[in-house]
Amino acid sequence: MPRAKSPTIAAPAGVACDLLSPHSVRQRFEGSAHLIRLAVVAAAFVVLFLLLRRAVVPAGFGQYGHFRPAALKEIAAREPVFAGREACAGCHDEIVQAKSKGPHANVGCEACHGALGAHANDPSALKPTLPVAVHLCPTCHEADAAKPKSFPQVVSLTHSGGASCVDCHNAHQPKL
Fold it and tell me: Pairing with 12, which of 3, 42, 96, 111 sits 20 to 30 Å away (CA)?
């Protein structure tokens, strides 16, 4: 049975050149050492990236989206820091009743007074401090074109003349 011929390419002066001969392969890669070095460096970067990724990315990442699955357990194990409106109403019913008739009826107590879960669990453990109205009220009520026209807004620097908001307004029923 005759042996299959190797592919040939046209060579100058009609000389056939065998593509798979060791001499031909050596000629083809002659002067390409820089390309081989580049391929080795690129492969090293890929391996380094994969090793770093394995070391840095937590196990299970991507299982439930772009966060760590263990984060759900960690967050669930934390003690709640907010008490909620119902906890405030248990002791401060008169304030809750007054607030329910005013424009801040839908604003939670802790939106202004901060997280008070520890105070709700043990009132003697944490004594809440009154917020500084001149800093707190403009957080929501500073004039801003992005807010609806019906929302109460002021330019705090000119509105109060330097006085605190609570000098003129009751924080739980802020109408004058």
Answer: 3
Tokens representing 32 are 């390409």
- Cβ–Cβ < 8 Å for 109, 116: yes
- For 116-134, letters b (16+ CB in 10 Å) and e give beebbeeeeeeeeeebebe
Domain extents in the chain: 18-77, 80-129, 130-176
Query: What six digits make up the tokens of 149?
Result: 């026209």
Q: Give the separation between CA 91 and CA 71, rounded to whole angstroms.
A: 34
Task: Tell me the pLDDT tens digit for each residue of 144-174.
Answer: 999 898 888 999 888 888 888 888 888 887 7
150: left (phi over 0), alpha (psi -120 to 50) or beta: alpha
Phi, psi of 150 (to 5 degrees): -75, -15
Give the mean pLDDT of 61-76.
83
Average pLDDT in the chain = 83
Mind listing the pLDDT tens digit for each residue in 76-116?
A: 898 888 888 888 888 999 988 888 888 888 899 998 988 88
